[in-house]
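User: These chains co-purify. Model them together.
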Amino acid sequence: MSEAFIERITKLAADTKAKTSKPRKGETFVEVDQSNVRDFISRLVNEVHVLHLSTITGLDLGQNFGVIYHFTYDRDWVQVKTLVPKTTPTIKSIVDIIPGAILYEMEIHDMLGLTFEGNPWINQKLLLPDNWPADLPPPLLKTSKPAEIRKRLHLEVEKK
Amino acid sequence: MSDEPKRKVESAGLVEYSVENLVPFGPIHPALKEPEYFKLILEGEKIVQVIPRIGYVHRGLEKAAESRPWVQNMYMFERTCGICSFVHSLCYGQAVEELTMYEVPKRAKFIRLIIAEMERIHSHLLWVGLMGHWAGFETLFMWVWRDREVVLDLVEAISGNRVHKSMNAIAGVRRDMPENMEDRIVERMKFLADRARYYRDVIDSEETMLERTENIGGLSADLAEKLCAVGPMARYVGLQHDVRLNDPYAAYDEVPFDIVTRKEGDVLALLRLRLDEMIASTNMVSYAVKHLPEGPIRVKIPPIIPAGEHASHCEAPRGEIFYYVKSNGGRTPERVKSRQPTMANLPTALEILKGQTIADVPIVLTAIDPCFGCMDRMSFLDIESNRQWTWSGEQLRQYGINYYFPERLKKK
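Assistant: Joint model of the two components:
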């Protein structure tokens, strides 16, 4: 099962011009270009039948945002990573392929300011407070300092 | 939501409604349970759409982790939850251990399993009690919580704490098992298994529970898979989703156990499943205590973790818990991502709620074993009459009980 599975993933990655690496036994790390990530995931779900998405991680990598989709259902892990430039912080949503991804995308939008195109709830806040100022950068960026956020939020409360 | 009165919200294509019809209330409600907020959109008695708003107790742990040492983070993440605290530190620890390449001693792996399974027993007992409370069966609540003390006492005897065990260290555990505990643990586990069997009988024969739970909260296996349900919420529709079995960690590959799944897919199935799972856990603890290997319990590791990234997942009482750790070779992590099982089960819960009546809301929301006291406050919006009102958790509970057992109302 395992060997054939990894072979199919590798083949799929070759089709979508993705780089694969195997950092550990049973783990496949796929780096896909942003334009191909939706294609890759929909084929992963429909052809290889990897259905369970554990979560989506958002990373601040300086010039880029990193987005990792973790498919870790059993011993064979598939982790799909893609880079999104900070100048155009938008990526296509995968909610229509995997409906369970809806809250994970909302979380990344709140925490990093990355927009997922096609997610119906993306403009609603999930985790950030309602009085979060629109001009304050998202909290999980490396440039955001907790002390500044705290000070700013206190000011917002005092305004009321 | 009061600050954006004109905005239209599209609710997954089903119903469109304007936000100005909703009752605004304070973002944080200092009540006993954790504050969460669900917008329920009704058509008469039936719920047609639910929109969640979580994060009122979001404390920015992921951000805080970036400025704290590796070891300190372990005990900080343990504070994420007051029920399944151990499994958080276990999952974070496993991700870090994978980066350091240190092997965890076998005895430590067994001790981790024992504590994790005791935590599962205590969490499931707590949940069964809460189900009794919300269904209007207070006796069950009292009895189950009394039995929960048995397992909490054992946890205290082993770790010194009841809730935040602080047992884990990176590459090992901090405390060894006390001497001469074996007989006591085996005896108590037998007692708990007997109690679980007794509660199975009670639930199968008690009208109060059957009426409130049978054929309520239905879900199909396909949908559960699509919505990425985890843990009991996946197993009660027949999916074999258990990290302990699919990707064994700690000593789960050496301790035999049966995975419990059910097919019915209603709240009653969840009750039976969690009680059966509890019995399986008592057997695992007894087996692990009898077969505890000798040897060291931890390896000392340097404070600097090599650069790299790794993810780890464990089976918490509520389902799969997930941690992702990235190191740049320093004393603090570059990024830690933590995803709790309730977050993964929330889309499923919202789906189950559609088509239920208001009276079933407390039961169905408790059924996912949420890590928040979500019934605290809800606002209701009736599409037909455009009437709005707000209920507290207690009012909602009473409404549910009166709806199903109107004779109790007459007696009063």
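The first helix of chain B runs from residue 61 to 65.
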